[in-house]
Amino acid sequence: MTTTVDTGVKNREALDAANKKYEWGFSTELETEFAPKGLSEATVRFISAKKEEPEWMLEWRLKAYRRWLEMESPDWAKLDIAPIDYQDAFYYAAPKAKPTLASLDELDPEIRRTYEKLGIPIEEQKVLAGVEGAGLPARKIAVDAVFDSVSVATTFRAELERAGVIFRSISEAVREFPDLVRKWLGKVVPAHDNYFAALNAAVFSDGTFVYVPEGVRCPMELSTYFRINAANTGQFERTLIVADKGAYVSYLEGCTAPQRDENQLHAAVVELVALDDAEIKYSTVQNWYPGDEQGLGGIYNFVTKRALCQGARSKVSWTQVETGSAVTWKYPSCVLNGEDSVGEFYSVAVTNNRQQADTGTKMIHNGRGSRSTIVSKGISAGRSDNTYRGLVRVGPNAENVRNFTQCDSLLLGDQCGAHTVPYIEVRNPTATIEHEATTSKISDDQLFYAQQRGLDRESAVALIVNGFAKEVLQQLPMEFAVEAQKLLGISLEGSVG
Amino acid sequence: MSLPLPSPRDEAWRWSDLSGLPALAEARPRGGVIDTSGLWLGCGGPRLLFVDGVLDEALSEPGPLGAGAVEVDSDHPLGRLARGAGWTLDLGKGHSPDATIEIVHVATGGASHVPARITLASEAQASIVETFVGDGWANRLTQVDLGDGARLMHAARLRQASGFTSLRIEGQVGTGASLVSTILAAGGAGTRIDAAVKLAAPGAFAEVGGALLARGGQRHDAAVTLRHEAPEGMSRQTWRAVADDHATASLAARVEVARHAQQTDGEQSLRGLLLRRTATVNLKPELEIFADDVKCAHGATVGELDRNALFYLASRGLPPLEAQALLTRAFVADALGRIGEAAVREAFEADADAWLGANP
């Protein structure tokens, strides 16, 4: 199987044939507008001006940038990363397309082709392009697509608005709902929270803002597709979701990038706020370009995701399927302040070739009766390293806290590594904390049985791996579960046998 | 002279409190007459008495033990401070002392740094019990090298009334050899226990575990790494942490499995018990695995005493404090049960009981 691919290939079939391993490795030739290369206060001002942001937003960014300059890149993760030259990247890249679309014809045909390749259904593409009256899919999903640095289209806006749900790109939200954004932005992940969060706060270019008002059950799944397209570009999106009292929202996030030899930087921040009785379900299928078999290229994925379960009985559920990126540094967390609040973390992380993933969660229990569940499945193959790193902390006033953690690792081959680093810090005796972990491999018996029933070796491995990850996959909304299952198989191709 | 100590910002020391050490390092020992009655277990074997890090030859019966300058080399931040005079045990092939070796460390304030080296040739066997009493800072570095089929039982009871005890154990275990180390912290001092043991040859066995009992403002902290470097090794880490009042007990136990250490069997059991809502237990059961045919499992729990069990004992007529002590004793017993010799195990259990009995 060949792995070298001309990134300019446009024909999808030819590309698929040439590159089975990373199906999303195409790049799209678009006229793109860049900020000057490098990072300085001028870059921050440029981005802010491009976004027509109010003064307070610029101040917030500049403050974050100045803090970032004083911070050091964290080195505690089990990751081997070459030093990153922050001056050798573009911090803003926008496709030069018309910002608002009146009909399908007006959507840049190249972007449309990209959506086709991303697998966004044609009906949704029409809606993405703003063609009202097009045959809508039976099950509605509102999509916000972020292309390099900016959001290109948000669908179903009118229908969501009838329900009272605000679903906007974050730059639109800053302009249209400044008070709401200002109230919550940086409240969960402060600008100076960590090195990458500070970088994001300084240069974030776009992302998604969702507000679900009191008592509203969001009528459809919300979804964002992130795509890094332009070369040498960092993507820094920021997502803020606020679920007011009694609200419910399910949010899906998908990411891809073209194949390039150099490493590209992705440093996102996701903030979730759940007030009394609110529930947020946040699902991610992360499939950034993982680099080639020699570890050349691939995305550096440094993500800060945190949820504030502020209200009583609020609930946040993180589900993630991590198959991409050369380096993953990501710990979706829940700060459980509300009484009887619930945090959940379901994760499948697959690493192959030279990929490195250091991922896990933090459950900070401050509320009485708060509960959390952590299920982490790590699968390592090739020469990769896969680390679960987690923290369960129980504060002194959090009575009757419960946590259950299960971390299972599956090793395919003897050149990879599986690591488990759980921290447990308990300051209240009424807490019940349980942690279990296992490490195993696919047994020859299992493989033999599956092959003897007529499956080839790779399908057998995919079947067993899917079984291993079942507890997590079943948490995903249906559309994503199917995609995730396929992804697991593709990511592990060639790793056994 | 300023003491180069790690800070809590350092990941491996995040739960430690070494802030009292510079003052202890400056202080002078009080010295005076030492009453050693009740410190010896009466095993009848070789014995050494160190007072403030200096061997008391009159009260020692070295037997096969050597005393004097010890060649050790460690890059551990506390272990490397222990240089110069200490003790050694060097046993030839198949040798074994008749009875358990006892080493008592008495501190009268100030700081003492003592290195030790234990070398057992193939098929040699030894059992060593160390007891720490007094106050001040006792800092020890023990390097262990076990030849093929050698067996070392090591037990340390940390009973210092105040101050700080820091142990650093560095071990290398040969083919089919076995190292078992059990540590009980049941005094009033702060504690840092560090161990790094390599299972360097096929079929090696290593077990490091124990119990940390903390009350008042005490901080006990254990950080143990067992590294499998060869196939078919087996390791066990059984730790129990009990914290009362404002105390903190922390356990960081790590199993590393190198690429070629197939058929490794590693197990960790870390359990914390909180007796009061102001106390803290921290656990970190860590696995780092590079081989695919291994069996590694860890379990970690933190909680309070089982209310049903307390109720049951109350219904059988036990006063609440006694019921609590009984259940806490059972909780701790798991970790101390690994001590092979009955006399030693009983002494450890008595220490734990005394600690529990002193509970108001």
Automatic annotation (TrEMBL), chain A:
Query: Entry's SUPFAM superfamilies?
Result: Stabilizer of iron transporter SufD (SSF101960)
Recorded hits in Pfam families, A to Z, give: SUFBD_core, SufBD_N
Q: Which residues does the UniProt record annotate as the domain SUF system FeS cluster assembly SufBD core?
A: 226-468
Which family does the UniProt entry place this protein in? Belongs to the iron-sulfur cluster assembly SufBD family.
GO BP, sorted A to Z: iron-sulfur cluster assembly
Instruction: Tell me which residues make up the SUF system FeS cluster assembly SufBD N-terminal domain.
Output: 162-217
The protein, known as: Iron-regulated ABC transporter membrane component SufB
Q: List, alphabetically, the InterPro entries matched.
A: Fe-S_cluster_assembly_SufBD, SUF_FeS_clus_asmbl_SufB, SUF_FeS_clus_asmbl_SufBD_core, SUF_FeS_clus_asmbl_SufBD_sf, SufBD_N
Automatic annotation (TrEMBL), chain B:
Annotated TM spans: none
What biological processes does GO assign it? iron-sulfur cluster assembly
Where is the SUF system FeS cluster assembly SufBD core domain positioned along the sequence?
A: 117-331
The family database entries (SUPFAM superfamilies) matched by this protein are listed as: Stabilizer of iron transporter SufD
Domain of life, per UniProt, equals: Bacteria
Signal peptide positions are none
Identify the InterPro entries for this entry.
Fe-S_cluster_assembly_SufBD, SUF_FeS_clus_asmbl_SufBD_core, SUF_FeS_clus_asmbl_SufBD_sf
UniProt-listed Pfam families: SUFBD_core (PF01458)
Task: Return the protein name.
Answer: Fe-S cluster assembly protein SufD
